[in-house]
Amino acid sequence: MVPAGQSWEQNVDLGIASKKAIICGASKGLGRACAEALAREGVKVTIAARHLQQLAETADDIKKVSGIRVTSVVADVATGEGRQALLSACPSPDILITNSGGPPAGDFRDWGEYEWHQALQNNMVTHILLIKAVIDGMIERRWGRIVNITSGAVKSPYPSLGLSNGARAGLTGFVAGLARQVAKHNVTINNLLPGSHETERLVKLTEADAKARRITLDAALAEAKAAETAKRFGKPEEFGAICAFLCSEHAGYIVGQNVLVDGGTYSGTL
Ligand SMILES: NC(=O)c1ccc[n+]([C@@H]2O[C@H](COP(=O)([O-])OP(=O)(O)OC[C@H]3O[C@@H](n4cnc5c(N)ncnc54)[C@H](OP(=O)(O)O)[C@@H]3O)[C@@H](O)[C@H]2O)c1
User: What is the pTM of this model?
Assistant: First the structure.
């Protein structure tokens, strides 16, 4: 039991203080929440996003709440140059959180080769190339934790997010195989599958839906919440806490899993 006046975080040592982590797509939303949760555990975090100002503000905020030095790298992780810049800032991470922006919603009849290549690049190939860049170092050091932020769409496809349904399924298949090859070196790879979490992306997607249906954003958000099993959206910090646990010393026997964080909205026994 947590003694009065203390939080759970103060009582459970995740055993990762002083480890080094790269967190992609971390100036906002779920990536940011993962970076903050890791920094609170004493992990030295290197965060990346494409836009300088928001990234710098986030780095300052994380430093304030955790007391940890935060390295920020302005980088588009979907490009070779961006990944190189990130890896130069943190060449031998113990922890890697892969994440990038999700693809647009729409009808599959409107997507051509370009859109499909973009989705594959952002939501599959980028993650795989980042894993490839860091995994041999983790194997040599006999310690590594990789968490890929994917989507609940992997378990239960979203009708309007065909690009996400397809590209993330490819990443999931690849990770399922690789995770089993590296587990013997104390390197784990798992995927975290967000359901609906309160982030900018959720609002933007709901806005587009509201516009198409000629209803207000508030009405669309209320409808979406009502459709959730828990009757609420997830909080990014809840997602971040699970990510930190998957990166912890205690999670070394969790391998190749797809951990769904959706408040029970996916209705399946397994
Ligand atoms: N939120 C949800 O409910 C939900 C549900 C299912 C799946 N997901 C998926 O989870 C991931 C994170 O979602 P989110 O809601 O946290 O999104 P978000 O609020 O839009 O935040 C995305 C973050 O990633 C950065 N980013 C995007 N593309 C990047 C790139 N190419 N290189 C580097 N940084 C990049 C953004 O900063 P910059 O723009 O400055 O680069 C921002 O910091 C997405 O792939 C999303 O599709 C989210």
Answer: 0.96
